[in-house]
């Protein structure tokens, strides 16, 4: 799933290539992806892309005051095409293509654009056409952006205070903190040397400061690694920069212990016992049930 660093990199990528260009057409192939009907998606035709913004994991193209907003969800991605002149319409259900945005030809005669695709059977990619980004429920309910100047250690402490939620779940909750998903929450907790099962409200002032530093540093370093990269290369860059997430059974680069995993219904977390849990493996409830 694209998270804050990747979505911000996609925003930068589109700022360089799409801003100032006129939208020729928006083709919706996966009709379940379009979550709004007013304004109609056809109203984007002829408008100019004037800006690109990010809200948590939402990507927003400002088109002369109308906003084309997408959330890529778990299996979605944005694929840039330098020329869509010869791209033929795709029949629904025949490919991973969900939406195609065609831009008007430039002075070179090329008509670039981008395609939103979604892999897998769970179709959760979402597209909205709205007059105000706050009209998107997921944006209206977002928590603070962890890279904003007012996201301080004190602000984080106020968020954590009294919470009985495990810190892993809290970091992933978009209504609490915007933009962090399963992968970067694992990375943040490893950098903070903190168990994913630790109760958020139990953190001391020093632990809160350490967690804040890990959040900001982890996200900024990931953004810096992907800065200037083509959209097609961002997934591989994300994977290469992860230290624990997705690395079950590998050696922790920090301490040399073996990275462990805890599995859930539709996801899993990875952690290092030595770095995060005092050397004790966490109970994997799924495996415990299988062993009964």
From TrEMBL:
GO terms for biological process: base-excision repair. One of its GO terms (molecular function) is damaged DNA binding. InterPro entries: FPG_cat, FPG_N, H2TH_FPG, Ribosomal_uS13-like_H2TH, Znf_DNA_glyclase/AP_lyase, Znf_FPG/IleRS. Residues 2-93 form the Formamidopyrimidine-DNA glycosylase catalytic domain. Coiled coil: none annotated. Residues 243-277 form the FPG-type domain. It catalyses: Hydrolysis of DNA containing ring-opened 7-methylguanine residues, releasing 2,6-diamino-4-hydroxy-5-(N-methyl)formamidopyrimidine. Its EC number is 3.2.2.23, 4.2.99.18. This is Formamidopyrimidine-DNA glycosylase.
């Amino acid at each position: 799933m694209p998270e804050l660093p990747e979505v911000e990199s996609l925003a930068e990528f589109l700022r360089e290539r799409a801003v100032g260009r006129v939208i020729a057409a928006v083709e919706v192939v996966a009709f379940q992806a379009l979550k709004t009907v007013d304004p109609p998606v056809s109203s984007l035709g002829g408008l100019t892309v004037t800006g690109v913004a990010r809200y948590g994991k939402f990507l927003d193209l400002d088109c002369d005051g109308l906003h084309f907003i997408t959330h890529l969800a778990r299996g979605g991605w944005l694929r840039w095409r330098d020329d869509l002149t010869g791209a033929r319409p795709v029949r629904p259900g025949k490919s991973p293509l969900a939406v195609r945005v065609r831009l008007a030809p430039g002075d070179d005669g090329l008509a670039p654009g981008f395609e939103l695709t979604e892999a897998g059977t769970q179709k959760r990619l979402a597209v909205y056409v709205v007059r105000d980004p706050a009209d998107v429920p997921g944006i209206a309910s977002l928590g603070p952006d962890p890279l904003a100047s007012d996201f301080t250690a004190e602000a984080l402490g106020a968020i954590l205070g009294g919470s009985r939620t495990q810190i892993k779940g809290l970091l992933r909750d978009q209504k609490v903190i915007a933009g962090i998903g399963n992968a970067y929450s694992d990375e943040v907790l490893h950098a903070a040397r903190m168990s994913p099962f630790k109760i958020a409200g139990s953190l001391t002032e020093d632990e809160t400061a350490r967690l804040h530093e890990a959040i900001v540093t982890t996200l900024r370093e990931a953004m810096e690694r992907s800065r200037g990269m083509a959209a097609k290369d961002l997934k591989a860059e994300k994977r290469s920069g992860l230290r624990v997430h997705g690395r079950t059974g590998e050696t922790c680069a920090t301490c040399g212990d073996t990275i462990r995993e805890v599995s859930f219904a539709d996801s899993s977390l990875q952690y290092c016992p030595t770095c995060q849990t005092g050397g004790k493996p966490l109970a994997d409830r799924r495996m415990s049930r299988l062993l009964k």
